[in-house]
Amino acid sequence: MKGRERAELRAEAHHLRPTVHVGKEGLSASLITSLDDTLRTHELVKVKLGKSADVSAKDAAAELALATNSEVIQVIGRTATFYRENPDLKRDDVPPSQPP
What we know:
Number of helices: 3
CATH superfamily: YhbY-like
Oligomer: single chain
């Protein structure tokens, strides 16, 4: 992924709230399934690592990205943002045409 694309996704993700939370159970199979499902429906997802999680945010992000075949867009503090393209979803990347 190019730097410009990553920057656009970071800007888009700025207003998102974390939809997946990592708790004391850590990176369980059910958490990976939940993230996978959320990526399928939203493409761009924030994940919040709880304070009781026993893994660093960067390590958890790398492991979750590998498990879900997604890309880590950014990690800030204990929040990681992931992206995985879904060709079935329609995105509003194309700006509306300008009137003549």
